[in-house]
Specification:
Radius of gyration: 17 Å
Helix content: 55-70%
Number of helices: 10
Shape: globular
Length: 267
């Protein structure tokens, strides 16, 4: 099984400035979030390029605590070009989900599919300070192939990648100090990615008949532990209505399939 490369948790970027060069480079190469609406041929080519070490430099890392889910889903933790690895990993995870959905279909609703696909656009908008625009989403219809193992792996990998984006966004909240606009931008991105991560878990288990691999909880990740550590700072920094949306997204995520204690944090 081909490894899926994610940054070591300690290397997740904390400021959008640290992602701007990588994001601008991917835009220039046509390998940004817009690739998710490209043709299947373009998407397959993009995945090959994004996974190449000649485009995104990465180096192996070790010592991730409690990383049983990494072994379970073929995740390899790496360092190197942090911005490049961070963004390319997320896009690769999305491309794998789209390919699986194209081959095996999905019962995920159109609204949930839109929620899932909005997150990478929200990330690039945030990093590059782009104005938000509408998006066209076509939900995959039913297909004949049965790929339960591949679906569980793709959905859970995307969940892990999205949780790193949540960690990045929450770090922005904690570090924004008196910049209220940045605080709200960061918590909005974090909330969008929590909602997308919930859909990713639903996609992983969207298999008939049900797959034991897809239904078993993913367990607590380093990102969950980080959110638990800073939840009080987020509550203090964010306007109440925004925090309630963020907390509701956390509760929803926990209810779908993660074995974490973050439910307490939102109460």
């Amino acid at each position: 099984m081909e490894p899926f490369r994610l940054l070591h948790p300690d290397l997740v970027p904390r400021r959008r400035e640290s992602l701007q060069h990588a994001a601008s480079t991917l835009v220039q190469m046509g390998l940004d979030d817009t690739v998710l609406s490209a043709s299947p041929v373009h998407q397959r080519l993009a995945r090959v390029v994004l996974a190449s070490n000649s485009v995104i430099e990465w180096t192996p890392c070790h010592g991730v605590p409690h990383a049983c889910h990494d072994e379970r889903f073929g995740v390899e933790r790496v360092g190197g070009d942090r911005g490049g690895v961070f963004l390319s990993g997320l896009l690769i995870a999305y491309l794998d989900v789209l390919e699986n959905a194209a081959r095996a279909g999905t019962s995920i609703s159109e609204d949930s599919w839109r929620t899932l696909l909005w997150a990478p656009t929200a990330l690039f908008d945030h990093v590059l300070r782009r104005p938000q625009v509408g998006m066209t989403v076509v939900t995959p219809g039913p297909r004949t192939e049965h790929l339960p193992h591949e679906r569980a792996r793709a959905g859970h990998r995307l969940h892990l990648a999205l949780m790193q984006v949540v960690r990045f966004a929450v770090s922005g909240v904690v570090r924004a100090e008196d910049d209220r606009t940045l605080v709200e931008d960061c918590v909005t991105l974090a909330t969008a990615c929590l909602r997308a991560a919930t859909v990713a878990l639903a996609f992983a288990s969207d298999v008939r008949p049900a797959s034991r691999e897809a239904q078993s909880p993913i367990g607590e990740t380093p990102e969950h532990r980080y959110l638990w550590q800073v939840i009080g700072e987020v509550r203090a920094a964010v306007p109440r209505a925004r925090f309630e949306q963020f907390a509701a997204a956390l509760r929803r995520l926990d209810g779908v399939g993660t074995a974490s204690t973050l439910l307490v944090a939102g109460n």
